[in-house]
Amino acid sequence: MSRRRRPDWAGRNYTLLTGAAVVTNLGSHGALIAAAFAVLDAGGSAGDVGLVAAARTLPLVLFLLVGGALADRIPRHRVMVAANALNCVSQAAFAVLVLTGDPQLWQMMLLTALCGTGTAFFNPAAEGMLLSSVSGEHANRAFALFRMAMNGAGIGGAALGGAMIAGMGPGWVLAVDAAAFAVAGALRAFLDVSHVADRAPGGGLLADLREGWVEFRSRPWLWSIVLQFSVVVAVVGAAEAVYGPLVAREQLGGPAPWGLALGFFGLGTIGGAVLMMVWKPRRLLLVGTLCVFPLALPSAGLAVPLPVWGLCAVMFVSGAAIEVFGVSWMTTMHQEIPEEKFSRVSAYDWFGSVSMLPLATAVAGPVESAIGRTSALWGCAALVILVTAAVLLVPDVRHMTRRKPAPAPTGRRPDESGPTGNSGPVEPSSPAAHSSPAGV
Asked: Rg of the chain over CA atoms, in angstroms?
């Protein structure tokens, strides 16, 4: 008797998506740290670090909606592979620039902007592809396992990236990230989209965007949490992309301790994902939203600042908590959003969630100059708490319940038998990573 190598619900697409996400996260977590230290090594200031971070996120705001509409019109895996190719080229050029010369601020901003453009087209397509690759019955476990694998890779990527920066410099970490994008793009080229029904001819890109907007605005739980995360992602992003490296350099001993702290955040996400493999909370959004409060802890820990192991502890707790939110968010999206609109709704999710991030990272340096880094970090923590408390006032957030899904067709894996889960509009009950809100 042959031994099964994977569960019945883990079909070809799910397995490829998970493997590619692991490869990408091994490279990207270290590259985010490397970009900040590349700016600092070139003589840049806190404001320059913020400008480079803003250059990465601004294209997300500009192109996410177009990317979401495009991913619901043409095969999603083609969008994903093209985006990975752009990411590979831009990160390779960034690596060469850092390794061979004296990088200028405008050059680093341009290359990170190209990388952000690829991400803008990739994220809605990837989320739509993942949501369509599992059945409703197994969605909670599948999303938890996917995120556990992805974030587990982030642990190694962040820790290894910090160590490589300290020993070899940021350029080699950026080169590794470019290679990771090449490998991940090759894996995603083998995704099977034959099970996805052809989209009915529509009225063009603008009509698709309007249809996605109607789906988005008709669900109070959706737009309220996205508004919440527009603030949460902005302040957490500013704290981790700008203030974190500065605190690490000046008070923690350099990039390696900061990489270790980010690694503990990843370790916490694994703990949260393991929990969600077995726990299926009935009130999905209430439990998830309560778990956003701990995202205030890292900013508070940097404000003190805590010693390295204290910072690692709060990063672990916040990682575990946000993973509970992330799985709950993805499960809710899978339950409530029609399959043929996954990418467009996901694009509005991502768009709203990252809309304030470029501004937050760009002004992080001036805010530090005006009120001091400690006050800025305490302000970040306070904003997370305030907006999370506010979203609990929305009835759908408090009362949304998990529904028992219709059974999937027997004898085939989900991505071999057509769209699964809820395939039609359902009245209401999470970005990205998550899921753009989950992708904090």
From this structure: 20
